[in-house]
Amino acid sequence: MRNKVDFVESISNEADVICFTETHLDEIIKNEDIIIEGYNRDPYRKDRNSSGGGIIIYISKFIQAKPRPDLDFDSEALWFEIYFPSHKLLLCVVYRQPSNNNIFWDKFHESIENALSYSLNVVITGDVNVDFLTDYSHKIFDIMRLNGLKNVINEPTRFCATRQSLLDPILVSDSCDVYDSHVIQIDRTYSDHDGTIVFLNNLTRSKNNTTYKRMIWDYRNADFDKCNELIATFDWESIINAENSMDQNYFIQTTPQCYYKTTPAYTFLIQLNRFHPNFTSVILQDSSCFHTTDATEQILAKLPASAIAGLSMLTHF
């Protein structure tokens, strides 16, 4: 238990937001029983009230945030709007049961689109039960490409006797400036998952009535036969044998042009909603002031070891 207490204390000292999945909590466990000093006294949670599952979010008491139930798409997904002095961020924490089907992913996709129509700064974390090291053809990768999301965790997060997998990604939108992200090792006596953490620099400011364009290439409906024909009939010899660097650059540019000519593309104009920040600039002057004492033991006593499975942290500088 000592190693586990030290671990939670260390991440509490530096994280603005702490997220757990698979909390296994129910109505018997009250919020006052799982308070962490320095964080909101009423942590936001969704309990499955049955075997397994559940999520909980701790947000620093120095940060203003509010739930966004209009974006929630599943019984084990929570969206939050987090305010900073000149911008806002939408955070989603989700636990996906392995048995969830395409309906889950369709709702997940729609939820992300709605979030991006409100703010350019989006972070999604949790346990999605998709191996990001091997399942490259999974639908979640299409969702990420279509919405300009990238995963900033590149190491395994779940370990068993026969394999290692990356089930706990942190997905961020293009506008999020990631200072650092990595995996936090957890003692295997407490969990078969590692935790994850991301540090964000200044985020994109959301201005009133701001619009931006996003172009999406529909490779699923591309005419690859036509593309291959264009590539096959092009005069490559003159380019390949050329010593002129300009011709070599032209060679590099030609192949993508063949794809562009044979792939449908759509341009979307996205308009952001109006936003009025309502707090002072002292909120984030000293993020090192978030400390946890023996209150950490209270949450550890209530949360099962499996809660570490979906542990993720968000810190803003």
From TrEMBL:
GO cellular component: extracellular matrix
GO terms of biological process kind: cell adhesion involved in heart morphogenesis; larval heart development
UniProt xrefs under SUPFAM superfamilies: DNase I-like
This protein's name: Endonuclease/exonuclease/phosphatase domain-containing protein
UniProt lineage: Eukaryota, Metazoa, Spiralia, Lophotrochozoa, Mollusca
